[in-house]
Amino acid sequence: MGVLTGLKPEAVFQYFEEICGIPHTSHHEKALSDHCVKFAKDRGYACTQDEMGNVIIIAEATPGYEDVPAVIIQGHLDMVGDKAEGCDIDMEKEGPRIYIDGDFIRADGTTLGGDNGIAVAYALALLDAEKGSIPHPRMEVVLTVCEEVGLLGASAMDFYPCRARRMINIDSEVEGILTAGCAGGRRARCHIPVKRTHCSGLRCKLELTGLMGGHSGMEIDKGRSNAAALLGRFLMFLKENIPYNLVTLTAGVKENVIPKSGSAVILIPPEEEEALRRALERFMRYMGAEYGKADPDIRLELMVGKAGEFPALDEDSRLRVLTALNLMPNGVQAMSMDLPGLVETSINLGVAELSDDELILRQSIRSSVSSAKEMVSRKVTLLAEQLGGRVDFQGDYPAWPYARTSKLRDLCVKIFKEQYGYEPKIELMHAGLECGILSGKLDGLDCISFGPNQFDIHTPNEHLSISSAARVWEYLKAILAAK
């Protein structure tokens, strides 16, 4: 008996639990990709798998639907692998440990992977249905890899088996919203050189925890703090209060996740311990006033170790690190002038890592306006170069522009009104979707994106609504059955 046994629709939750049992974080999707290929071959479907692990499965039309336009059902195989402090799961080797909490499916101590495991579960359930029991036109299931690290799988993929020019992307997280456009983006990796020298002092560790974090596309406008930027801010504040040397600094796990924790090790003169504690308390009062509602549980704790000699940054390197962390663009850069409430341009400082000889900053840049994306990229490059460093860009993907006319969108609105009794919202989103990439590779592709209610994605608090997943399943089947 599985954890989700008995939930309706049975096939969807059976496959979702099966997917959760297979490790599939970004760059580690091979086992799940192979599983999908075996699934298809066992059932006699035409199937392709490329070197990266992207999969296309073709299901021909059911009787009576041969003349209905073919459709792509699209999702991604990878998930963000984040976990709570103290969790012992190795997410590269073990899938999420799921459990039911009322109307929600959650994972114990880790991200759930509902983004985008629910899309894969829907696709497998459609393909495994008894022949003709779910009417559909020619159906081309496209499952990509490395979506969460820059849409890399879709960018490299050859879609030659695909004849469809309609696509349903199941990678949105709010039921009742049809997504009809999204931002483009790219990843940046800044390298700032540093030098070290041996310094003596009292070793003190600063632990920053309790931040909410979140998805840098969905929660970037929520006013939440960023652990990497906040550490940099405290270290600059501390510089104005007591002498210290910086030994280590780390924050964040992924470019597209707002960092929720971080740490730094500093050396101080032993007689400055009390001054350090006072500075920390004063800084936390400031943070309480600034983030009391948006991020109320920020904790910056001090652990005092032993005095000794350690390899710390020299003064010039420390200044470069503090300058980079305090001046690097971060957060919302512009709101849309056309669509009130929509973020147009943003950058997320997702990871900060201080090694022996460089500070590495990894960022996710998003914008629905290509020139604005270039502007933010130039700012990052200019600051890095002024600090003696360089920037590498990768994973560039285009925006998915809103189409004024869309037969698929009109159909989805019609079916939604019939099932729910009210009209869905049509929105554009700031998070990146693969629709832009596929639209660029398949001329005339008509796209829509939707999905069931999911909350706190990319965090260990991620949860998927069971009842919403069931309703969206019925909605998806009704769209496929329409003529």
Keywords:
single chain; 483 residues; alpha+beta; 9-stranded antiparallel beta sheet; 6-stranded mixed beta sheet; 11 helices; 23 strands; 30% helix; 30% strand
Secondary-structure blueprint:
Blueprint: H1 10-20, H2 30-42, E1 46-49, E2 55-59, E3 71-76, E4 98-101, E5 104-107, H3 114-128, E6 139-144, H4 152-156, E7 166-169, E8 177-182, E9 184-193, E10 196-209, E11 214-215, H5 227-239, E12 245-251, E13 257-258, E14 262-268, H6 273-291, E15 299-313, H7 315-327, E16 331-335, E17 343-354, E18 358-367, H8 370-386, E19 390-397, H9 407-420, E20 425-429, H10 435-441, E21 446-449, E22 454-455, E23 463-465, H11 466-481
Parallel strand pairs: 3-6, 3-7, 7-21, 8-20
Antiparallel strand pairs: 1-2, 2-6, 4-5, 5-23, 9-18, 9-19, 10-14, 10-15, 11-13, 12-14, 12-17, 16-17, 17-18, 22-23
Describe this structure in words.
By secondary structure, this protein is an alpha+beta fold. 30% of the residues lie in helices and 30% in strands. It contains 11 helices and 23 strands. The strands form 5 sheets. Strands 9, 10, 12, 14, 15, 16, 17, 18 and 19 form a 9-stranded antiparallel beta sheet that branches. It has a 6-stranded mixed beta sheet with strand order 1-2-6-3-7-21, covered by helices on one side. A 4-stranded antiparallel beta sheet has the order 4-5-23-22. Strand 1 (46-49) and strand 2 form a beta hairpin. The longest helix is centred in the middle third of the chain and has 19 residues, at 273-291. The chain is elongated, with a radius of gyration of 24 Å.
